[in-house]
Automatic annotation (TrEMBL):
InterPro entries: Cell_wall_metabolism_enzyme, Dup_hybrid_motif, M23ase_b-sheet_dom. Transmembrane segments: none annotated. This is M23 family metallopeptidase. It comes from the Bacteria. Gene3D superfamilies: Glucose Permease (Domain IIA). Residues 21-53, 126-151 are annotated as: Disordered. Residues 187-281 form the M23ase beta-sheet core domain.
Length: 292
């Protein structure tokens, strides 16, 4: 076995130094005799695994050949090929095969990575599309709800406005709420609608006439109490058409006059929530869908 290993080592050196082998080719081959190791191969386990291209006997036979013929196939030997060159060619072929296998592996790995990346991108695109769709649906739902609320509010205000009325059909505002001057002891507590004497005065909303009569500086006055307790004062009337009982929106309850402390014919109107202090009639009418 030691001698067989030595021959194999010499064969490897011959493959690496192909130039040196060319010189050996010119000399006659040195005969090498080996003992019969056929019985040994049967007794050494794993020996066949050391030479995958043939049996132990074939390997030993090849190793017993002249150095210039070691590692040659029958065809190579018949063609007179140099052993070192043949071995180097085999090594080169093997290296090329390994390189090709490595490149193939790298290419397959890159292709697999590309497929995985494409799959991830497709999944992300699908998730994003689903998220966009959900967001769009939510936005559409929000807009629909907003539009529904807007329409409901418009309908409410329209219905509310229909249940209220401005006290005169034709008028000119001459004094506003909170105005100060010599005409009032403090500030103006209502809104003055200037109109010709005798112009019909309407109920601004359904309610009950709770008071009607002379009221000093207010002249002839009608107090209309609404369902929520708000009192509407109609002052300086020339006449009172309704002095008690219930009325509905737009009913004529009196007529414009110049009674009491006045400088001309007009309707002085006050709005007193709960019968307390007066508030700005312009703002109150606006809250109920009416502009003056």
């Amino acid at each position: 076995m030691a001698r067989s290993g030595a021959v194999l080592g010499v064969g490897v050196i011959a493959a690496v130094g192909a130039g040196g082998m060319a010189t050996a080719k010119d000399r006659p081959p040195a005969p090498i005799s080996l003992p019969d190791l056929s019985s040994v191969t049967d007794k050494v386990p794993g020996l066949d695994s050391l030479v995958p291209d043939g049996s132990a006997e074939e390997t030993l036979a090849a190793n017993s050949a002249p150095l210039t013929q070691a590692g040659l196939t029958t065809d190579e030997a018949a063609q007179g090929a140099d052993a070192g060159e043949a071995l180097r060619a085999r090594i080169m072929r093997q290296a090329e095969q390994q390189q090709t296998a490595a490149e193939l592996h790298d290419r397959r790995t890159a292709e697999e990575a590309a497929r995985e990346k494409a799959a991830e991108a497709a999944a992300e695109k699908k998730r994003q599309a689903a998220a966009d769709k959900k967001a769009a649906e939510a936005e559409a739902e929000r807009k629909a709800e907003e539009e529904a609320r807007r329409k409901a509010e418009e309908e409410r205000r329209a219905k509310l406005a229909a249940s209220y009325a401005v006290p005169l059909s034709s008028y000119t505002l001459t004094s506003v709420f909170g105005e100060s001057g010599s005409m009032w002891s403090s500030t103006h507590t209502g809104l003055d609608f200037a109109a010709p004497s005798g112009t019909p005065v309407k109920a601004v909303h359904g309610g009950t006439v709770t008071e009607a009569g002379w009221a000093g500086s207010y002249g002839y006055r009608i107090i209309l109490t609404l369902d929520d307790g708000t009192e509407i004062w109609y002052c300086h009337l020339s006449s009172m058409t309704v002095t008690s009982g219930e009325v509905t929106t737009g009913d004529t309850i009196g007529r414009v006059g110049a009674t009491g402390n006045v400088t001309g014919a007009h309707l002085h109107l006050e709005v007193r929530p709960g019968g307390s202090d007066p508030v700005d009639p312009t703002a109150w009418f606006g809250q109920h869908g009416k502009s003056l």
